[in-house]
Amino acid sequence: MNSLTRSSLRYLIKHPWQFGLSILGIAMGVAIVVSIDIANHSSGKAFNLSMNAVAGKSTHQIIGTSEGIPDSIYFNLRVRDGLKNIAPVIESYVSIPDSGKKIFKLLGVDLFAERPFRDYLSNTGTSIDGELKDFLTGPNSVVLSNGSLAELKMKVGDSLKVFIGGKERTLYISGKITEDERNTSTLENLFICDIATAQELTGKINRIDYIDVIAGSADEEKRLRSILPDGYDLQKSGSRSQTAEQMLEAFNINLQSLSLLALIVGLFLIYNTMTFSVVRRKVLIGTLRSIGVTSNEITTMVIREALIIGIIGTAAGFLAAYFISKYLLIFISQTINDLYYVVSVREIYISPMIIAKGIALGIFATLLSAIKPAREASSVHPRSAMIRSEQESSLLKKVPAMSITGLATIIAGILILLIPTKNIWLSYFGILPIIIGFALLTPVIIILVEKILSPLFKYLFGITGKIASRSIVQNISRTYVAIAALSLAVAATVGVGTMISSFRSTVIDWLESRLNADIFISAPSLVSRRNDAVLSEDLLEKVRALDEVADINFYREIEINQDEKTYHLISSGISQRNHSGFQFKEGEPADAWKRFEEGELLISEPFAYRHDLEVGSMLALKTDNGMREFRVAGVYYDYASDQGLVTMYHTHFKKHWNVKGVSGISAYVKEGFDLNTLKEKIQMLDTDGQQIVVRSFKFLRDTSIEIFDRTFLVAKVLQLLSVIVAFIGILSSLMSLQLERKRELGILRANGLLPSQLFGMVGIQTVMMGLTAGLLALPLGNVLAAILVYIINKRSFGWTMQFDLIPSIMIEAILLSLFAAILAGLYPAYKMSITSPANALREE
Amino acid sequence: MIELSKIGKHYTEGNTKQNVLKDLDLTISDGEIIILFGKSGSGKSTLLNIISGIDLPDEGSVTIDGAKVTGLSEKERTLIRRNKIGFIFQFFNLIPTLTVTENLQLPLELNGIKDGDDKITAILNEVGLPDKANSFPEKLSGGEQQRIAIARALIHNPAIILADEPTGNLDYETGLQIVDLLDRVVKQKGKTMIMVTHSKDVIGLADKIYSMKDGKLTETLKEAYLE
Amino acid sequence: MKRLILINVLLFLLSGCESKKDVNKDEGISLSKAMGETSDSSFSKAFEKRRFIFPDDHGAHPDFRTEWWYFTGNLTSEDGKKFGYQFTVFRTALTGIPKERTSAWSSDQIYMSHFTVTDISGDKFYFDERFSRNGNGLAGAQINPFKVWLEDWQIVQSGNDVKFDLPVIEIKAKTDNAEIDFLLESAKPIVLQGDSGLSRKGSQPGNASYYYSYTKLKTDGKIRINGKEFVVSGFSWMDREWSTSALSEDQKGWDWFALQLDDNTEIMYYQLRKQDGSADKFSKGIIVFPNGDTRLLINEEVALSVTDFWESPGRTKYPSGWRLKMPSENIDLVVKPVVRDQLLDVSIKYWEGSVEINGTAGAKQVSGRGYVELTGY
Prior knowledge:
A: alpha+beta, ten-stranded mixed sheet, C: mainly beta, AttH-like fold, disordered N terminus
């Protein structure tokens, strides 16, 4: 190690607070980004693994109509056409009420067709014990992996009460699969049963969900396509995972962007620390320069210091991420289960990509933030060695130029945001210049605030107040970074908070107008957003026939898989009363309803956005009778699904799809009748073993809002973490600032300033900085919120939201920044006040 | 040999242009010791900076050992400084994070000299501080720090020493010791030195004395100070 | 009593050890394990003689644990190329008492099929194996019209002609390399094996099977090997057997011979091997005379000696040449595999292949073709 490096390392070690805090800042930033990444990746990986476990070695799936594939089609392919590499599959979910609502996947297979497909059934090291007889002759026999058995505290021969499709079943564990390390994670969420058992358990009698296929060559694929009857499709394995990935894309990007915010705050922190360390070492750098160290060597030195911080910070960040991600994963998988699909994540998965990205971000962010300080260091003139202490190189002169640049940057950001694009990254990219612009405007705002507050402070606190406020401006090159970092973090809180509140009130308004019935009936469902279990149409008629019922709405939701995409189609039996619950974005309501009842479609706003549709567009859908085109009659506001919904009147739906059952029923109570009586009566109805959930409007609304709040929990956690990073930032810069002023404060102490007065002065200063940051955060925060509401959300999910200014959030923001600043200022103030003036005056 | 020819340097402050150096010529032979007197702000330090290549003159040229410094890039000038010049500062400017030995190693490293331990031991003996090798600068008194600074200026054996008020921050007694040291390690070893100072105690060292006024140099006879 | 296939085979299959890399023996699964006694008392057993009723008894007997439809045959193409084939459908019941189930896939009957073609002139042996269930129509056996099938491997009635109680049948099966499509018509009456069709396998009561054969079926059709088609004709042998029997503990396997001599005589003989290699007293056979008359051959009447061995790639030694003497009938035959390697490398490994026969019957020189099965090696 050469002396230069040694010198700079010792500098880092001698200032543990500043550099420790910078490391902490970077660590937090990296930790948040990486943990979000890990959580996203893990949930995706868990889903893919469960898909792979199910897909096995299949290259394709034959998918049928909405109701799956009749047994006879499989029979034809296998017996008549002699196809060998095909296997029938039924998939469902098993929820186990006694074990903390654990969810497993039920996989129904034909063992005799399995051999080429799922290697866990034939891998070395894997074995199924137990009687094959029981497995095949059942009834209700399943086999589980050893791990799952252990998790459920069950053994072979035990029985298990579960829910499948809302119906209670008793499963018999007829055997177990001993897994090896390669397929442990594949098997851990699976209940495997015979295809016959699966049909009986899921009620899918005479049909299977899909047929797995191994088509080794394009020729085989072609041949297969030519054999398949109309209405059946050959789709590549993995397209389900892809669909899932697409579904989550916007959700993931938004989480990642929020996490980047924390990193940006961390970046400010490093910038601040490095700038500081350079300013403090001007004489030293000047000396080095005059004894012959080149400016490049100085640049290298500073960059290297930053790199050390970056590396340590990144490493610490990874460590923290490992722990944070476990908690985030709980939130994220909850949200996925609420909104998208069933996934059960039991493990953290880290990919090389995540590590690479985390390292790149941590190091890159550090280097990026060190560029300017490094350049400043390299431009330190050797002449600096000749003078005692370099004064604040007056940033004040640059303030006008900075302000103009800031404004221009903001305008550039606005222009980027105005680019019409569906690319969410580009949209987020547009926010960056706005943030930077605000940061560049910070000095001028600080000066203005000081101008206003200085006389006040002088009046209130005398000369100490004056010095306190003046010194913020005098040290503006340092104070502004701290203030900007804090205000950015607080602005992020305001922005995200305001967006969530705005969104929330939009959703509540929507729920209240949409859910205008009195009572809601559905089957218990694993994915909160939609009902995957189905009620019988008998029940519908029974409810309709009740004396207390004035009118009913009902719907059936099906998934249509076409063009490797999943469409959610709603067959709607909507009553006139509920028409008012639909707010149309496009289309004249009376006309739209009339056309709807004639067989045209109503589509939700996100669907229209995703698929570029408007009133009058034609949409081709895969019906049970092949592809059919439908005209769009209206686009309605809807916040139920970011994937979008297509709604069709039920009588027309029935013509195209042979789908039985309803997903949900809602009923209006006849005037003069009691709601609770009706509720009881419905619960008394004979449902043939089908569990039903009967909910009031209020209950349903509250659960919906609960899900909504749960969805944004992650955002709130991230927001909080960003504030913590910012807090570290302001702590670090205040400490540096006060340390820098050691001598000045020493002189004041020498001239008779009491320690308490000094404490007060530093305190006043931090209050001012906090206040300035808070004030600055308000416009920035609301601008961020508006961008999130009008641009990001619109482009990510396609929905229009109202935008509210929320005074409580703004007040909270100011209090937050004041609190952060005061808390961060306490230690330096205390430290300075107890320092002996002699020490302060001494040469450092 | 250092040759300064028609050096001009001015600073602009607001609308007024202020000449610091004007049409200045100076030739310093090898082994000569030059002392510059002058009031604060008279341009002494600027002249030192121009000689060392830290600053460039607005007009004129500087030639060191036949090489025209004023025509060189910043980096080339730095390398000349690294190699040929040793600096002594008023405030010593030792690197606080390095020990005495390490401070002395720095110029050696910069010049690519390895195995400088003997040199360091030798020079520490010369400046009379062999027992401070592993101390950090903050543990040393001002005089001791300046001795180390002088050692640092000399360790890589530069031909030219530039000293900017080397005794300016020291008490009288200590200042004399430093002058004595400079006499031993600079003058008697035949190095060229240009020293800016206010102190008359150093005059004994001087071969030539100049005073600076209005951007010009006037040579003063040494005897004029030695009453 | 031939090839039994049991639940354990399937269990074994699923346990995954069937992968060729993992098992370095010829025998995928121990035969005695596969043929172990069932503890399930719900199955019917062959305790006494029965009256065979046709066509009903050509169909399945699901209350018995095991059953098979077994075809082997030797054929010659128009240009003199020689072939052999084996096509077998096995049925195994998982329980003697079926459960009421709603799914059409539900099944307590498992079907397995083996299909081989021996290209004698080309010295090649092709084989394949399939499993399925009788649910959802994937496999099964029915009487009217007669049909036994496992997916697209099928034995189906062809037309309404019935010869000696057996309809004319078509056999269709194919693998990646070989494909057969034959019409079979019996040239000789049905042969009831053992004691009027009750074939005892051991000393315990019920350890017996119902067993009948058609020893000479005129066979015409096509064989396709690697895309090349041959029009062939010759004779097949059909065995039908069902039981809930098992190998006794001291029995290790068996060597089974089905020989068709060119003097229109057929000989069937199986020798049950004990653990020590000696012949079990329940070994027996039958001789079918040109006029269709038969005579039971007991163990003591037949002297079987091995004249040659063949070592499989898995280093198991199989007999590969025999001398079969029946002094009571004045018959002395030399039996030789036409292709050495006719090993079915499937879930239960066994050797079953086409053989050629030379020797004397009385004073006459005879020759012929047949099939030999070797299990438990």
